[in-house]
Structures are given as structure tokens and as C-alpha cells.
Amino acid sequence: MSRRGARGPGWGLLLALLLALGVVPRARGVEEQGGTVQGFQVVTFKWHHVQDPYIIALWILVASVAKIGFHLSHKVTSVVPESALLIVLGLVLGGIVWAADHIASFTLTPTVFFFYLLPPIVLDAGYFMPNRLFFGNLGTILLYAVIGTVWNAATTGLSLYGVFLSGLMGDLNIGLLDFLLFGSLIAAVDPVAVLAVFEEVHVNEVLFIIVFGESLLNDAVTVVLYNVFESFVTLGGDNVTGVDCVKGIVSFFVVSLGGTLVGVIFAFLLSLVTRFTKHVRIIEPGFVFVISYLSYLTSEMLSLSAILAITFCGICCQKYVKANISEQSATTVRYTMKMLASGAETIIFMFLGISAVDPLIWKWNTAFVLLTLVFISVYRAIGVVLQTWVLNRYRMVQLEIIDQVVMSYGGLRGAVAYALVVLLDERKVKEKNLFVSTTIIVVFFTVIFQGLTIKPLVQWLKVKKSEHREPKLNEKLHGRAFDHILSAIEDISGQIGHNYLRDKWTNFDRKFLSKILMRRSAQKSRDRILNVFHELNLKDAISYVAEGERRGSLAFIRSPSTDNMVNVDFSTPRPSTVEASVSYLLRENVSAVCLDMQSLEQRRRSIRDTEDMVTHHTLQQYLYKPRQEYKHLYSRHELTPSEDEKQDKEIFHRTMRKRLESFKSAKLGINQNKKAAKLYKRERAQKRRNSSIPNGKLPMENPLHNFIIKEKDLELSDPEEAPDYEAEEMSGGIEFLANVTQDTATDSPSGDTGSDAPLTGRSSPPAAAEKPPAARAPSQPGPAACDPAPPTPVPAPPTPAPARQTTPRTLSRGRGLRRGRGWSAAGCRVRTRVRRRRAVCTAGARSSGPARAAAPRCSSSRLCRRRATRRRTRWSRRRRRCDGCPRALHVVPSTAWSRGPPVRGLE
Amino acid sequence: MGSRSSHAALIPDEDSLRRETGFSQASLLRLYHRFRALDTNKKGYLSRMDLQQIGALAVNPLGDRIIDSFFPDGSLQVDFPDFVRVLAHFRPADDEDAGLRDPREPEPLNSRMNKLRFAFQLYDLDRDGKISRHEMLQVLRLMVGVQVTEEQLESIAERTVQEADEDGDGAVSFLEFAKSLEKMDIEQKMSIRILK
């Protein structure tokens, strides 16, 4: 408290200084202009020349500096929402300005608000909208936005009118329509305020999206109601006919659907434009902003819902724009958008405060103000409960009592209401000032009071009667494990459901929209996960090849000597891995052990020993977070932290590596699932015998596979633009592995016999013939075929010897080798890529046999590498390698795999 | 309603399944649709690859373990009843179950003990009824970021086992496992509210 108190005057001083800067030069400017002309002046002081932009810039600066100030103390910002702080700051600033000038020179004008401040905020909301969640709850959101808003407007207006008739408000020059007009503008929940507060209160994603979506979509209702009642007021109560009412209802549909349509059209346009900005990368981000802004202005011009337009523009374009523009541009767009939105929000709240300091607008009527506050809260609560009751009969995820409380309480009003009320025409609405002051009170009350109390309320409601104690290690670990288990089960049981409409849309999108709106190269890498997978897949397969090559023909290299590094054709720029990993080890060890004070403090009571503390801390810090906890839906002030992506990547790598590994171990003959496989084999046997694919290479005659193969051939001819196989099938990549695994299970016990026959009916590109000879080796089932692998954490590489003999044999077969049993379609595909890369990368080394050149490093360095792998994200490491020289890749998995649990059987 | 009954007829042994798992008809039907959707080429059962295709599982540290739990004893396929039985562990416990249940009947799948047992068998890879230090380490490896060193992991695993281990055999038995979590609200933590 004392700190805050101390800061107040400090801020006041600073602001007074800033304002003085603004005021004093003005006086001097006048002075100088009046002075005598003395010929050419070297330096002139032209305040008027720059006055307006200067003042604007200063205000922005003040607001931004204020934000820095707020965040100096975590205590303050964790209790008081920033929006409330900004309003208070605005009040203080307004007071200072007024004290200096005695006129309210700075107010939030509707023009500035609607044209410059609101669009960035709403665009940001749309562009970063979690689409799936949004559309998944669209029905609920629409109900709240439309029915809820109408309900709020009508009940508030009518109730106020009723009280007015009872005479409690004294003598006011207001009619029913004025009350309804007021009701309609005060009814809408404000997107800016809601987001500002909800962002700091962590509620579940469904609740968040409902309140957030509602606040965005109710704009259409507000605009229509406002326009309708305003025109009714203009017409005068007696002249309103039934036709006008019908028109009003029609106009609702026109305004909302029209606004949406405008947004969608502009989104289409924007996506299309970004498709062709390849050569003007630098202005790419500009298009995003300009075209979205145009959608806003266009619908404003057509008197449609501008907020809906720009929201939907953002929602619809995000996917395509993100895919089309370069990574740098995407970053630019993200940051710029966040900056604009966050800045606009800051300015809005500050100016809400400043605008309130103007004695001219204040007209007090206690009954009116208080009753408005009561009515909007009560009717919102009633509305929410009623609608939720209806909705819960249809919703899969029920909205519980606590959700309803938060929703009712989270109905914050904000700058939209203020701007609308300021827009009112004083000549038509006689009591405009009363409306304005009431609106200001309502906004302040909801933002400051409800904003302050919603967080404690949520916490209080969630509070369980359990005592507060230190969780034990077991509880911590297993608790987290349960979270993961739960989210996995949710995914399996399909919480989101299998939506027919969504499937249709995905289909349509894939077949048409993406083809039109996305760069061909972008169509490949649409999905982040698939992207990761794609890279990983490629690299693992490359390493697989290399591993095989090594085992088959380069066994000698495994002797532990760094001299073998010479054999490896790594070009010089690559730093020594050994050194790097040691330094990494040292450096990162420090950070891993470092403790944050909070956890120290927490545990002071029950410190058993430091080690225990470290353990707890490590767990606390590094346990993977379950989905709900880390998934940020939308935040105006933060970009999605890369942490989550990193976590996803790490886990994904691990999972995929494990799957690949189990596939591989099976391929190499360490098949543990023999019994199961036999069972499976028996089932398949009949089919295989009759099949035209004698070795059962692709037991599932899935069209996807054929497609893949065709695509691969295409890729050979045009590496850049060929559409990607994975893009065609969302889970295609993963399926590959899965297929392969299954494949393996089918084939392994059957021995080597099947592999001789080439696959029929498939084209074999000419490149296949010149495949590196040893690449076939890994698919050799070694003599270890019958040994179940011991459950050691580090899977020992299978004996290399037998692989060698078979190499020449495979060499002699063109197609058979290419389509050999050990290789799935995807494997082949990858190999072609390897080859291609090799051609580019190491043209020189080729003559001596690329396989030989790709030597592993010594086993002593392997230990270090293993450690290093753990520290660096493997991801970046792999990527670097890939960029440098793909042939080096094979060393990665041998180290990285060691982290994974041992391959285990199903018994 | 005609469509519903026709759907319901698709589910084999629906009534007994409902009794066993406690799922409502609607839930069962929804799960059946989910099952069919996961079953890529309409085999009538799910294979490992069907489940591996769920993208979100690939970024779940325990994803593959969960998948494995659907395929006990080395089987390669899971049919609908088994699928539902696994999921039934996560049905929220409802109040009427406790009072009206026939004591002679086996404990429902979603009881606290069964929930715990489900979790336990995710750890206990070799099915010897004990979580060894090694098994604990493996789970930790899955669940902890790459920043943590192997030594730290080992020490954490060691301590975790020690903490729960009461009889001093260096491993956590199921009873010890349950005991170490007795303060935790398992019923609530291991339930998904949509699986009614």
C-alpha cells in the first residue's frame, strides 16, 4: 500500500512535467510568432506546426510509460487489473489537465475510438482467435450474444422506465424510447474490457471463449438496437409503426450477416494477395493490416457491423495468411498486431479516465445511476442462468454454476458503450448528459470494481476445503501424470466430437480453398505438428539410411577414435561437438540448479535438506505441463509463449522417435512382438497370398499410399513446388509410421524371403537404380531376430555383420531393392530426398561412395553428445545439421534415442 | 427417435456393456461413433496405429503409454467393449452408485481403486505388481523436459520411490502407491465430466 502511495505523487510529478512541456511551448510559440521578423532565422520554434501529432505522441508515450510503471510491482498488477489502473491514471491526468486549463481539452471522441482505437483491438482478437474452439461453441456464443443482449437491453430499458414512471427519479425529460436506447447501448458486454480482465483471471477455455465470443459478436446487436432506437427517437414515439419494427428486425440480419460477409470477402482477398507477395516480402505485413482495416471501413460505409467484419476477416484469413507469408513477416504481423492492440487498449482506458474529468458532462441522478447498476447486473445474471439452462440441455460440456457466476459477473461494459453514448445527439436525446454520466459510472464500476473482485471471486468459488500443505514428491509427479493421462483419454474419447460439418468444411478447404489461397509451397507445411513431423521423419529416415550404411559397410569406424572424424566429410564450420557439449554442460548445469526465491520461501518451513528442495524445484520447473495449463487461448499482451511449442516439439520428437525405434528394432530383427505378430500374420496370410504384392509390403491397399508414391516422383522433378503428400492427409505423416510399424509386425517373423519380389504395378523412377547400395542394409533382419531385446535404456545397436553380405545382393535388384520389404513408401520417398541432397551437398564425395563418407564419430564423444542432446533442444540441433550437411544426421538418433525408454514388448 | 434405436442396435451387447461401464446410452453411442471414426478402414476393431493417429497424443508425454494400456497382454487390437471398458475408468463417480450398488457385484470400473490401478499399470511395465526405481525413472524421463540431467532424474526417481516405499524393497507396490496418494482427490482428478 505504501509503495503505491509513494508512486502516486511520483507519477503526478512526471505527468505534470510532461504536461508543462505541452503547455509552456504553446505559450512560447505564440510569443515568437508575434515577434518582429528579423530576416532569416537559423532556428525557429514552430510549435503549432507539430502540435497535434506531438501531443498524440506524448499521450501514447505517457500511457506506455505508465504501463512500465504498473508492471514494476508484481503485487499491484496481480491484484488490480491493468485496465482499472489505467482508468485511475486517466482520472488523475484528467484532473491535472483540467487544473491547468480548466477545459477538458482531451476526451475520447467517438471518431477516434471507432476509427483508430477499436479496429486494431478487434482485428487482433480475430486474428488470434482459437478458431476451433470458437466455432465449436458458436451456437452458445450466438445465443448469448443475440438473445442475451436483446434481453439485457429490453429489461434494463423497460425496468428503468417503470421506475421512472413511479416517480423515483424525479423530473426527467425522458420517454420510453430514450430508455430503450439507453438500455441498448448499455447492454452490450464490451470486448475490450472483458478481455482486459479475463486475461488475468484464468478461467477454463470454454468459458473464456464464450464470454469473449459473446463480447465480440454482440456488436451487431448493439449497433442495430442502437440505430433502431435512435431513429425511433428521431421519429418520435408516436410515429413508429409496426413496419418500422419489422424493418428493425430485418436490419439486424442485414447488419450482422452483411458485416460477416464483408469480413469474409476481405479475408479471401487478403489471403489471395498474400499468396503473391513472394517478391515483396518487406511489405507483406502491411497488406494484413491495410486490407483488414479496409474491411472495417467498408462495412462502416455500408452501415453494417464493422466489428463483425474485421473480426471475421481476422478469423478467416489467419490460416492462409500465416501459411503464405514468410516466417519473418508472420512474426512482424504478430508483434505489430499485439503492439497496436495493446497500445489502443491502453489509450482507451486512460482516456476513459481523462474524459470523465469534465464538469460539463456530469449530471447526477442517484436513483437512475444506482438502478442502472443494479438492473444491468441482475438482468445479466438472470439472462445467463436462463440461457444456460436451455443450453445445457444441448451442450456436451455443461456450463456449471461457477461458470454461470463468472459469466454473469464478467459482463463488463466499456468504451464501446461510452463512445456510443457520446455519439448521441443532444437535440434529440434531451437527457444525454445523464446518460453519459451514468454510462461512465457503469463502465468505471464494472471495470474497476468487478475487475478487482472477479479474481478473488473465482478463486473463492474454486476453493476446495482441502488443507494447504506441501505436496509430496509422489503426489506431485503422479498428479501431473494424471493430468496427462486425462488429456490423452479426452483425446481418445474425442471430447471435441466428430463433427460432421467440420469434416465437410475441412474437405472443402483442402480441396478448394487452400488450393486457391495458399502458396503451393505453403500447402506443404500447413500444419505445425506435421511440419515438425515431416522434418523429423525425414531426418530419422536419413539417419536410418546412414545407420544402415554404417552397419553394413562401415563397421570399422566404430572403433573409438577421434581420428575417424577425418573420415566424416563434415565441412569445417561445424564446431566440435565435444567441446560444445562440454561447455553446454557447464553452462546449463548452473541454470538447472538455480532456485527461485519463491520456491525457497515456500519450503522454508519443512526443509529437510537442500537436495530435496532441488528435487522439488526441478520437478516443479521441468515437468511437462498438461494441456489445459499451458494452452493460452488468446492474450492481447502476450504472444503465445514459445515454451509450449518447445514442449510439444520435445514430446513429439520423443514419441515419434520411440515409434520409429520400435519399428526399427523390429525391422532389425529385435522383434519382441513375435507372438502377437504371428497372430496378426495368420490373419493377414490369406490376403497376402492372393495379393499381387507377394511380400505384403503394403498390406493395406490404401489409396493414400499410391498417392504418396506418385507424389514422391513428382517431387523428384520439382523439389520446390511439388505439393506435399502430408498436406493431403492431415494425419498422413503419422499414419506412415503407424503403417510401417504394423507392417513390421506383419513381416518380421516371415523372414527374408518376401523381400525379393519387387512390388508390382508401381512406377519406378529412374533415380531408383542409382540408389546408394548400403541403404538397403538396415532392413536386414539380423540373427538377433529371435532375441527379445533386454529392457535396457540404451538399445544396443544390432550386430552389423550379416547386413554386409546382403548388400551386394540387394544392389543387383533395381526395383526390388527400392521397394524392398524394409522400406515403406515413405521411406523410399525420403531416400530420394537424401539422394537429392547429397547431390547438392557433397558432389565431391560421391565418387568414393557417399555411404562411406558418412561415418559416425567416436563412441567416447557419444557420451558427451548424449548429454548435450538433453540440453539443447534436439530440434534446433537437428535443424542445424540438416542445413549444413544432411549426411551428418545419422549420428543424432543414436544419441537421442538413448533418452527414450527401452523398446518393450506387449507381453 | 427411430434413428437412435437403429444406432443403438449397432452396438453389440449394449445393455450389458452399459451395466458394466455405467455409461449412459448417449455416451455409449457417442463413444461408439468415436470408435468407428477412429477405426480407419472399418475393421471393427482398433489397432495401435489407429490410436497413434490422434495427433494430440503424439505431443502427450504419456500418449504412447496410454495407447499401450488399450492393448493389454500383447494383443494388437481392441474391440468396442474393451475400448469402452478402458474409458470407463474415467467416468466421474456418481452419487447414486455408492448407495444402491449391490455389494456382491464387482467394484465399478470408475472406483477410486480402479482409477489408481489404471494409473499404476501405466508405470508398471513388467507387470510384476511393483513400480521399480527403473520404471519410475522411465516415466520421469517421459515427463520431464530435456533440461534435466540424467543424474538429476535418477536422484528424483530414487527419492520418489523412497518416499512411497514402506517395506523397503526398493519398489512401490500398488498398496504403497495408493497410500502415497491417499490425500489426493483421485475421484475428481481422474474423471472426465463428459464421460457420464
Automatic annotation (TrEMBL), chain A:
<dbReference type="InterPro" id="IPR011256">
    <property type="entry name" value="Reg_factor_effector_dom_sf"/>
</dbReference>
<dbReference type="GO" id="GO:0042802">
    <property type="term" value="F:identical protein binding"/>
</dbReference>
<dbReference type="InterPro" id="IPR004709">
    <property type="entry name" value="NaH_exchanger"/>
</dbReference>
<feature type="transmembrane region" description="Helical">
    <location>
        <begin position="84"/>
        <end position="100"/>
    </location>
</feature>
<keyword id="KW-0406">Ion transport</keyword>
<feature type="transmembrane region" description="Helical">
    <location>
        <begin position="401"/>
        <end position="422"/>
    </location>
</feature>
<dbReference type="InterPro" id="IPR018422">
    <property type="entry name" value="Cation/H_exchanger_CPA1"/>
</dbReference>
<dbReference type="GO" id="GO:0015386">
    <property type="term" value="F:potassium:proton antiporter activity"/>
</dbReference>
<dbReference type="Pfam" id="PF00999">
    <property type="entry name" value="Na_H_Exchanger"/>
</dbReference>
<keyword id="KW-1003">Cell membrane</keyword>
<keyword id="KW-0597">Phosphoprotein</keyword>
<feature type="compositionally biased region" description="Low complexity">
    <location>
        <begin position="765"/>
        <end position="787"/>
    </location>
</feature>
<feature type="transmembrane region" description="Helical">
    <location>
        <begin position="112"/>
        <end position="129"/>
    </location>
</feature>
<dbReference type="GO" id="GO:0015385">
    <property type="term" value="F:sodium:proton antiporter activity"/>
</dbReference>
<feature type="compositionally biased region" description="Pro residues">
    <location>
        <begin position="788"/>
        <end position="801"/>
    </location>
</feature>
<feature type="compositionally biased region" description="Polar residues">
    <location>
        <begin position="743"/>
        <end position="753"/>
    </location>
</feature>
<feature type="region of interest" description="Disordered">
    <location>
        <begin position="743"/>
        <end position="824"/>
    </location>
</feature>
<feature type="transmembrane region" description="Helical">
    <location>
        <begin position="249"/>
        <end position="273"/>
    </location>
</feature>
<feature type="compositionally biased region" description="Basic residues">
    <location>
        <begin position="678"/>
        <end position="690"/>
    </location>
</feature>
<feature type="transmembrane region" description="Helical">
    <location>
        <begin position="368"/>
        <end position="389"/>
    </location>
</feature>
<keyword id="KW-0915">Sodium</keyword>
<dbReference type="InterPro" id="IPR018410">
    <property type="entry name" value="Na/H_exchanger_3/5"/>
</dbReference>
UniProtKB/TrEMBL annotation, chain B:
<dbReference type="GO" id="GO:0071277">
    <property type="term" value="P:cellular response to calcium ion"/>
</dbReference>
<dbReference type="GO" id="GO:0045944">
    <property type="term" value="P:positive regulation of transcription by RNA polymerase II"/>
</dbReference>
<dbReference type="GO" id="GO:0005829">
    <property type="term" value="C:cytosol"/>
</dbReference>
<dbReference type="InterPro" id="IPR018247">
    <property type="entry name" value="EF_Hand_1_Ca_BS"/>
</dbReference>
<keyword id="KW-0653">Protein transport</keyword>
<keyword id="KW-0519">Myristate</keyword>
<dbReference type="GO" id="GO:0070886">
    <property type="term" value="P:positive regulation of calcineurin-NFAT signaling cascade"/>
</dbReference>
<protein>
    <submittedName>
        <fullName>Calcineurin like EF-hand protein 2</fullName>
    </submittedName>
</protein>
<dbReference type="GO" id="GO:0008284">
    <property type="term" value="P:positive regulation of cell population proliferation"/>
</dbReference>
<dbReference type="GO" id="GO:0005654">
    <property type="term" value="C:nucleoplasm"/>
</dbReference>
<keyword id="KW-0597">Phosphoprotein</keyword>
<dbReference type="InterPro" id="IPR002048">
    <property type="entry name" value="EF_hand_dom"/>
</dbReference>
<keyword id="KW-0813">Transport</keyword>
<keyword id="KW-0963">Cytoplasm</keyword>
<keyword id="KW-0539">Nucleus</keyword>
<feature type="domain" description="EF-hand">
    <location>
        <begin position="152"/>
        <end position="187"/>
    </location>
</feature>
<dbReference type="GO" id="GO:0005509">
    <property type="term" value="F:calcium ion binding"/>
</dbReference>
<dbReference type="GO" id="GO:0005886">
    <property type="term" value="C:plasma membrane"/>
</dbReference>
<dbReference type="GO" id="GO:0005730">
    <property type="term" value="C:nucleolus"/>
</dbReference>
<keyword id="KW-0106">Calcium</keyword>
<keyword id="KW-0449">Lipoprotein</keyword>
<dbReference type="InterPro" id="IPR011992">
    <property type="entry name" value="EF-hand-dom_pair"/>
</dbReference>
